[in-house]
Amino acid sequence: MALHTFRLPDPGEGLVEADIVTWRVAVGDEVKINDILVEVETSKSLVELPTPYAGTVTELLVNEGDTVNVGTPIISIDDGVAEAKPAENNGGEAQVPNLVGYGPRTSTAKRRPRRGGGEGSVEAHDQVADTFSTHAPVSRRADDREPLLADQDAPTGAPLPGPGESAPTPVPSGGAVLAKPPVRKLAKDLGVDLGTLVGSGPGGVITRNDVVQADKQMRAELVETPEITPAEMGAVEAWRMPREDVRIPIKGVRKSTAEAMVRSAFSAPHVSVWLDCDVSATIQLVERLKARREFADLRVSPLLIVAKAVCLALRRSPELNSYWDEPAQQIVLKSSINLGIAAATPRGLVVPNIKGADSLSLTELAAAVTDVVTTARDGKTQPADMAGGTFTITNIGIFGVDAGTPILNPGESGILCIGQITRRPWVVGDGSDERIEPRWVTTLSVSFDHRLADGAQGSTFLADVAAILADPALALLF
Fold first, then answer.
1. Fewer CB within 10 Å, N- or C-terminus of the chain?
2. What's the rounded Cα separation, in Å, for the pair 20 and 66?
């Protein structure tokens, strides 16, 4: 039977690593070619990986939550077919059939010899591998099926106990530390030196509990007063007990967003302006559009009218749809608007963009906004959908916030922020007809790169957007 190892491919755009999110198969499952094996998260999106092999899943080589490099073996599949003897070509070299993208093996499978071992070393190494087979980390060699113990050679020193003999009590030896990758990561996060621990697992393997207990002992030594349990506190409420800090790994989209925001904040000189706007006419327009047949299957909200207003206003202020060409020391005005729509998802903030948004009709724009937002919330946004944005809209009003000063996406010149739309007292009419009425009002703010646009251009753009939202009929003048 032929055993195939599937390696993590490049999910796109030259990414070097991905996080294992969800396995769609388990050991023993039968799979067909193109069945989905696993869902992985890159710094840009969630990606489903299909299998190039058919057969039975024999082993999952990485765990959910692990971050693995491109090219790392992640799963083994047995195709159930007897392995044929490789054919020889005219030059006498063996030819091994392979799928496109998964090249032939360049070397034969060999066991790694035990360091310092002479005759019988391979046999002793096999015994060590069998002893730790259920405790070793999941990483594997590319050219055989032998487990590696935390990237170290098999331990040398005392012989393995014979039948009926008990294993000697392990002591710190200063040699190779036996621990699974998750245990090593936990120790690193807690600041525990694995070299000082005595493993309680079989063969001296350091377990998670060993690390936790060592951390507790370290904390106890730092506290002058003895630890008091809730039972000893009597009438003192349990909530007064000190709680441990919670650590949240930053990876995938959150990591990419954090890096992008730092890069943007310290590379582009931000300027923000804002104003309050009566959008009652926009709310009425939205209700009329919802009743029309053309929008029956589309999501219609004030965001749609804002998106259209932004496209129109950028025609009169093209500097807010440009980028800074550093090598040429030039401002490049973009020929079209790739309008980004910021979407909050469980994985973090993603900003897919609508390519050529300025060339779309209102119904086409409504369909595009619906599509990018739905896809983002489902976690299916692809890297290409987030590349090439020129201007972005972010709506913080859905969180009950009145206003904000957003940070530019790297490479873009402007971003518009929409606050919540609420009923407020507003002066309407003019002259003798002037009066105060309750109106639908929101706060709009725009941040822009001051290298590309000055205050006059940024303010003109924002005033144009507000004018269209206050009276959508003015869009005919743009």
1. N
2. 5
Environment class of 46 (CB within 10 Å of its CB; exposed 0-12, middle 13-18, buried 19+): buried
Classify 2 as helix, strand or coil.
coil
Q: What is the pLDDT of residues 29-55, one digit of tens each?
A: 999 998 999 988 876 677 889 999 999
72 touches 140 (CB < 8 A): no
CA distance linking residue 146 with residue 143, whole number of Å: 9
Pairwise CA distance, residues 453 & 320, whole Å: 7
What number of other Cβ atoms are within 10 A of residue 439's Cβ? Answer: 19
- Domains of the chain listed by start with CATH number: 3-87+95-106 (2.40.50.100), 170-249 (4.10.320.10), 252-477 (3.30.559.10)
Amino acid 378 reads: D
- Cα distance between residue 409 and residue 260, in whole Å: 7
Residue 415 phi/psi, 5-degree rounding, is -150, 130
Angle at 348 between CA 343 and CA 352, to 5 degrees: 40
Indicate the residue type of 410: P
Residues 65 and 20: their CA atoms lie apart, in Å, by 5
The whole model's pTM is what? 0.54
Q: Tokens standing for 96?
A: 């091994």
Strand-pairing partners, residue 423, are: 440
Tokens of 226: 């003895």
Q: Please tell me whether residue 123 adopts helix, strand or coil conformation.
A: helix
Catalytic site residues? Answer: 450
Pairing of strands 414-418, 391-395: parallel
Count Cβ atoms below 10 Å from residue 180 Cβ, excluding itself. 21
What separation, in Å, do the N-terminal and C-terminal C-alpha atoms of the chain show? 70
Segments in 230-381 forming alpha helices (H): 252-265, 280-290, 302-316, 362-377
The DSSP H or E segment spanning 213 is helix 208-222
Looking at 65-74, 164-173, 405-414, which range is the least confident one? 164-173
Residue 158: is its pLDDT beyond 50?
no
Query: How far, in Å, CA of 92 to CA of 365, rounded?
Result: 62
Q: Which amino acid is at 385?
A: D
Q: In whole angstroms, give the CA distance from residue 442 to residue 397.
A: 9
Return phi, psi of residue 446, to 5°: -130, 135
The backbone torsions φ and ψ at residue 286, rounded to the nearest 5 degrees and listed phi first, read -60, -45
Query: Residue 63: CA atoms inside 13 Å, Cβ hemisphere, count?
Result: 8
* Burial degree of 443 (CB within 10 A; 0-12, 13-18, 19+): buried
Q: Is residue 225 pLDDT above 60, yes or no?
A: no
Instruction: Dig out the tokens for 227 from the structure.
Output: 């630890």
Buried b or exposed e, range 378-392, using 16+ CB within 10 angstroms: ebebbbebbeebbbb
Residue linked to tokens 């014979």: 162
- What region does 28 belong to: left with phi over 0, alpha with psi -120 to 50, or beta? left
